[in-house]
Specification:
The protein is 54% helix and 18% strand.
């Protein structure tokens, strides 16, 4: 049985570190999704400073599973797989992984609000899906990991250790600032 574990990160660097830590732990990179608001300049800075050979070397390191190679290679390999798309309620975004395919597939974006529908279809409660979508809309980076149920606690701990925000607390602060608690598709 599969479970989806989701973490929101304030910076691309924190999300990349979490991605690398997941790879180091043995999580299949094909089970990790990333979604970031395209206005997040960290991705563009990272891409500008990395040449193709560095990306190849780093990705090879990640595939070998060496801890340093996994951290560096995970991040570099992550950057290689990012694709641009438009998510209702978010706008232009960078995305990678099965969640990106779920968001863009089968008309979900137009029917249920893009990212919210994709997260809900992946098993995330709709209320939390709104929180995560708002976090990405505000410039955060989301990692969603599909794991076997018995791996859930380990993956949650990795995301927390790498700096994932407490989404319930963050949503409370947004509400205190006037956010209505849901995101409206554009």
């Amino acid at each position: 049985m599969q479970n989806t574990v989701v973490g929101l990160f304030e910076s691309p660097d924190r999300a990349h570190a979490a991605f690398g830590a997941l790879i180091e732990r043995g999580v299949d990179r094909n089970e990790i999704s990333l979604i970031a608001n395209e206005t997040s300049e960290g991705y563009f800075r990272a891409l500008e400073g990395t040449n193709d050979r560095e990306l190849d070397d780093a990705t090879e390191g990640a595939e070998k599973g060496a801890s340093t190679g996994a951290m560096i290679g995970g991040s570099a390999g992550l950057l290689l797989g990012l694709g641009a798309l438009f998510i209702p309620g978010i706008g232009a975004a960078l995305a990678l992984g099965p969640l990106a395919a779920l968001i863009t597939g089968a008309g979900i974006g137009t029917v249920t609000g893009g990212m919210i529908g994709g997260l809900s279809n992946a098993g995330v409660p709709e209320e939390h899906a709104h929180y995560f979508a708002e976090g990405v809309r505000r410039g955060g980076t989301l990692l969603a990991v599909h794991v076997n149920v018995e791996e859930t606690d380990d993956v949650e701990n990795i995301l927390r250790e790498q700096g994932a925000v407490d989404i319930t607390e963050r949503a409370r602060a947004w509400r205190d600032g006037g956010w209505p608690g849901t995101i409206t598709p554009l």
